[in-house]
Amino acid sequence: MRIAVVGGGISGLAAAWRLAERARGAEITVYEAARSVGGKLRVDTVAGLSVDVGAEAMLARRPEAVQLATAAGLGAELITPSTTAAVIRAGGANHPLPARTMLGIPSDVEAARVSGALSEAALARIAAEPSAAPLPPLADDVAVGVLVRDRLGNEVADRLVEPLLGGVYAGRADQLSLRATMPALSAALATGGSLVEAARSVTDVGTRTPSDEPMFVSLSGGVGRLPPALAASGRFAVRTSTTVRSLERTSDGFRLTYGAVPVAETVEVDAVVVATPAAKSALLLRGVAPAAAAELAGIESASMAIVTLALGDVELPTGSGLLVAAHEGFGVKAVTLSSQKWPMRTEGRTVLRASLGRAGENQILQRADDELVELVRHELRSLIGVSDEPIDSLVTRWGGGLPQYAVGHVDRIARVRASVDAVPGLAVCGAAFDGVGIPACIASGYAAADRLVASLVREGEYGRE
């Protein structure tokens, strides 16, 4: 049994890892177009220090990422944040991020009041919302921003929800799906009622875990160490710098065409997991699962850039970082005070990183690297009072790096899977499916592997253990 996994990001690697467990004896090969595996998980160096230049934290309250890192031999390298106290730039000033919110949707008016990020008028509207005419049952999906503006007003949407969703998805609250980005809240509103009370019910569930249990973890030296550890496990083969250009159905499996044009090569396999970004997956699937390809082609993506700075021994404001509301007029949307957030050896240096780029905001990303560095330096003076000359800097660009979960996304993904499931020996996964966080991507890879093995068992091509 020969199985190909196309795409060596964390989803594809997780799928290959799971296949090594579930399809024992199979020859599994991961094909990755880049020179190294990892996708949006990557470690680079600035001023000689190892830093994450993509995702930099793993949600610890979902088990997949921590368990996989441990299984890959990195359990002793897991670290927890030194601080998680973030601030938000709203109304021209920095405020503590309000406690007890669901991605910015308040569940406690007093916690929002303590933050100071909202006006008295906005606070009064939050307080009155549970007594207002109840929401009708949410039978259909809705945009987060539209719902929040209707129930709590523009200020809550612009100052709280927009920067938090922008930090996670690089998207716009008025376009992002409630059902896809906040499934628990969507479920709580299935029968209608109060948005504030529904948010409270969800956040209360989140606070039932022990207070000393970390919400996020990372790895010493960077989360980007996880993909190479998986690839080096020996459980499956990895071919980097290998671009798969097409996928065809054969009488007893699939044919992959890869390599440089015109000297392309082919390989025939029994089964395939497609674990590439949505646009690339659409191209690969158009000949074998055209309905899935059409749906995936409709998923838009947002580009972003990470500017990492190494400074001298600089005094930073307290906390882990800053989120910036889109209406504040800054190019920077978030700042992570890396050397303050994570326990890391910096040799007396200060490391921080700034994120730029939201959906539909590509003009700023067209600037040269040195211009982005200067923009960040200029804005840091206003945002956190840091104006020191950097010792070193690094610009990392993620073109189309974050899929946008538009209204109806959950139903779209269900249609994609139904189309793919109709093709024996084929499965799909990735950040475009069930979440952009590391645990969600790992779970997506696991689900693809499980569906693939189930498909092969149904077809009688792989025996039950």
Quick summary:
This protein has helices spanning 10-22, 63-74, 109-115, 120-128, 144-152, 154-169, 178-181, 183-188, 195-206, 226-231, 278-285, 290-297, 338-341, 369-384, 409-421, 431-434, 438-458; strands spanning 2-6, 27-31, 43-46, 49-52, 58-59, 78-79, 86-90, 93-96, 101-102, 105-106, 216-219, 237-239, 244-249, 254-258, 265-269, 271-274, 301-311, 321-324, 332-336, 350-356, 392-403, 426-428. It is of the alpha+beta class and 465 residues long.
The N- and C-terminal alpha carbons lie at a distance of: 15 Å
Sheet-strand content, in percent, reads 15-25%
State the low-pLDDT regions, or none: none
What form results from the Cα inertia axes?
globular
As for the number of domains, it is: 3
Q: Report the top-level CATH class of the largest domain.
A: Alpha Beta
Give me the secondary-structure category: alpha+beta
So, CATH architecture of the largest domain? 3-Layer(bba) Sandwich
What's the helix count?
A: 17
Whole-angstrom Rg? 23 Å
Q: Please summarize the sheet with the most strands.
A: 7 strands, mixed
Q: Find the CATH topology of the largest domain.
A: FAD/NAD(P)-binding domain
The share of residues in helices is 25-40%
What would you call the quaternary organization? single chain
Any idea what the CATH superfamily of the largest domain is called? Answer: FAD/NAD(P)-binding domain
Strand count: 22
Mean pLDDT reading: 94
Placed side by side, the strands forming the largest sheet appear as 8-7-18-19-20-17-21
